[in-house]
């Protein structure tokens, strides 16, 4: 490497929730950090979850008390740090005596209420279902408890933004194509996935947070044996027109001991999932199977009066979860906990590899990983993320912020203002700076998506194509036609090629 090669303290490979979490934490402790992601942020597992901040009620059956306790404690921190993209949600568990006895459910909910301190979330209780219930008439009673909702992809993007604002260099569409240890440094080659251009840099430490690719990165990029393999489990979800009009989510038991969530989604839809199927092959090519669709629909139809057919599915997605697999057995019983493998140190540049994990504990995982990294950097600062608001999350309640926007932007339609609060929080002010009417929002692309918002996402949140905008930065893909999507892509293509002054003029 040439003498003028850029040098970093830490390079993080992988732009999912764990990689961005580590990058943000490490940058906030004073390390010079670079994060690279071969595709878009949250383009794989981290945007394919059930969108829940939860302790994992069903994990109690597998005796994962430590994981559940940690996740329950993290719910409170996350809900405080990102009130724009997370909020409390009540869950209803219809009682079926032949599946789990009532005493077992009560015991589980008692533990769920008391394993960790609760301040924001209500405790559990028993409920009765009457004739107005959306459930079939045979189901008369059940239970309620609290967990949280999260926009998973936005969580990743905002965490990456937080890392950038702490000084991290964040590069999307950038593949770590080669990394070689040279004594106390890693010599790294990055490849721009769009242009093919290569960049070389040096780093004192490296993190492999590539999720389903964590083991294969050793072979393909590092040219060293992987310390362990992960178990790839595919989870699939379907989105259908909303099954009921209640604000609560439902957790449905099934005879195979699995549970399925039915969650209110984007106002007009219900999100149904997830499956657990062992998976082999390229994680990017994972798609829902006909059998998985029928499985999810069958369980919903067993419980709800409103019956579904495959034609009701308006969207589906599948993600491959990289789970630790120490004991084998059913995919649903593979642990959602995480572990680190540390290679090197002293006279060899360290490599920290992340195996497993779940969204709810991402901050805790990142903190623990950064602690290990900072063992090699004695000058690094202290832990700081537990009470740190994510970008746009520096407010107390969505209702309060919405009322502020009504005064600041009286010309903004209430529905659009509500979406902005739940997407950008206080960063809405940055997006709308200098704008005084809807006419100044620029071209309308459908579903209340305007050029002003697309420009903001391209300039501030690494959006490069239509899919980035309508599926990961927002969920407007549920409401846009193919022609409208094409128009968004054309606008982004023109924007990337046009001089800056023309882009500003077109908006």
TrEMBL record:
Enzyme class name: oxidoreductase
- Family that this chain belongs to: Belongs to the FAD-dependent glycerol-3-phosphate dehydrogenase family.
Checking InterPro entries in the record gives: DAO_C, DAO_C_sf, FAD-dep_OxRdtase, FAD/NAD-bd_sf, G3P_DH_FAD-dep
The protein's GO terms of the molecular function aspect are:
glycerol-3-phosphate dehydrogenase (quinone) activity
State which Enzyme Commission number(s) the record gives: 1.1.5.3
The prosthetic group or cofactor this protein requires is: FAD
Record GO cellular component, one term: glycerol-3-phosphate dehydrogenase (FAD) complex
- What taxonomic classification does the UniProt entry list for its organism? Bacteria, Pseudomonadati, Pseudomonadota, Gammaproteobacteria, Pseudomonadales
Q: Which NCBIfam families match?
A: PRK12266.1 (NF008899), PRK13369.1 (NF009906)
- In this chain the FAD dependent oxidoreductase domain maps to 9-362
Cite a single Pfam family from the UniProt record.
DAO_C
Name of the protein in its database record: Glycerol-3-phosphate dehydrogenase
């Amino acid at each position: 490497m040439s003498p003028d090669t850029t040098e970093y303290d830490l390079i993080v490979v992988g732009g999912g929730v764990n990689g961005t979490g580590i990058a943000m934490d490490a940058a906030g402790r004073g390390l010079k950090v670079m994060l690279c992601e071969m595709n878009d942020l949250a383009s794989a597992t981290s945007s394919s979850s059930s969108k829940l901040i939860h302790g994992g009620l069903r994990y109690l059956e597998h005796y994962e008390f430590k994981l559940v306790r940690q996740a329950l404690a993290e719910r409170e921190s996350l809900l405080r740090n990102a009130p724009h993209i997370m909020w409390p949600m009540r869950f209803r568990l219809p009682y079926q005596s032949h599946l789990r006895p009532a005493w077992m459910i009560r015991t589980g909910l008692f533990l769920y209420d008391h394993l960790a301190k609760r301040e924001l979330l209500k405790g559990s209780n028993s409920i009765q279902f009457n004739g107005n219930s959306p459930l079939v008439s045979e189901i008369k009673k059940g239970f309620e408890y609290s967990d949280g909702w999260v926009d998973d992809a936005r969580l990743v993007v905002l965490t990456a933004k937080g890392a950038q604002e702490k000084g991290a260099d964040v590069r999307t569409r950038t593949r770590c194509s080669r990394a070689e240890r040279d004594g106390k440094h890693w010599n790294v080659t990055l490849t721009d996935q769009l242009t093919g251009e290569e960049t070389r840099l040096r780093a004192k430490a490296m993190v492999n947070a590539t999720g389903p690719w964590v083991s294969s990165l050793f072979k393909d990029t590092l040219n060293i044996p992987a310390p362990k393999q992960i178990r790839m489990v595919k989870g699939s979800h379907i989105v259908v027109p909303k099954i009921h009009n209640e604000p609560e989510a439902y957790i449905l038991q099934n005879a195979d001991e699995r549970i399925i969530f039915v969650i209110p989604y984007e106002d007009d839809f219900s999100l149904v999932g997830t499956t657990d199927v062992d998976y082999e092959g390229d994680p990017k090519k994972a798609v829902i199977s006909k059998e998985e669709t029928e499985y999810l629909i069958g369980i919903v139809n067993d419980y709800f009066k409103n019956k579904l057919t495959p034609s009701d599915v308006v969207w589906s997605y599948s993600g491959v979860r990289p789970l630790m697999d120490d004991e084998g057995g059913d995919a649903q019983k593979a642990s959602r906990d995480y572990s680190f493998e540390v290679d090197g140190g002293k006279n060899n540049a360290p490599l920290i590899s992340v195996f497993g994990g779940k969204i709810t504990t991402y901050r805790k995982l990142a903190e623990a990983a950064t602690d290990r990294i900072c063992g090699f950097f004695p000058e690094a600062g202290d832990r700081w993320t537990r009470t740190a608001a994510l970008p746009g999350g520096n407010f107390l309640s969505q209702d309060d912020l919405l009322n502020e926007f009504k005064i600041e932007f009286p010309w903004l339609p209430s529905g659009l203002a509500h979406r902005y609060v739940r997407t950008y929080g206080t960063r809405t002010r940055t997006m709308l700076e200098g704008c005084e009417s809807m006419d100044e929002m620029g071209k309308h692309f459908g579903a209340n998506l305007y050029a002003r918002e697309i420009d903001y996402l391209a300039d501030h949140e690494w959006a490069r194509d239509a899919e980035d905008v309508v599926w990961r930065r927002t969920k407007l893909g549920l409401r846009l036609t193919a022609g409208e999507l094409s128009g968004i892509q054309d606008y982004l293509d023109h924007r990337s090629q046009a001089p800056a002054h023309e882009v500003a003029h077109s908006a």
